[in-house]
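tokens incoming
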């Protein structure tokens, strides 16, 4: 089980159902299309929705239809740079080093 993460197909932050079994699935932690990639996408989509850059319904449909295609579309290097908190924090930390 350490190789998988119980994941929401539609993240709770985008209106996914917290305990609906139809929204839960096992996401691999390693390899292509892994849990980390999907988590990055979920965060970027959430920020795009919050910034009124993307309608909520569009984000929900994109991630539930084919999240790997949604990753290619929305988790661009520019969006990750701007919206992903871990990347932004790492960049800020690196900038503050002597």
């Amino acid at each position: 089980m350490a190789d998988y993460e119980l994941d929401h197909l539609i993240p709770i932050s985008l209106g996914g159902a917290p305990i609906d079994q139809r929204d839960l699935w096992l996401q691999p932690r390693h390899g292509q299309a892994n849990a980390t990639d999907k988590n990055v996408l979920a965060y970027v989509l959430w920020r795009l929705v919050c910034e009124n850059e993307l309608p909520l319904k569009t984000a929900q449909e994109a991630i539930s239809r084919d999240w790997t295609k949604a990753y290619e579309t929305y988790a661009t290097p520019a969006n990750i740079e701007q919206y992903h908190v871990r990347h932004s924090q790492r960049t800020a930390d690196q900038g503050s080093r002597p």
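note: Residues 4-95 form one domain.
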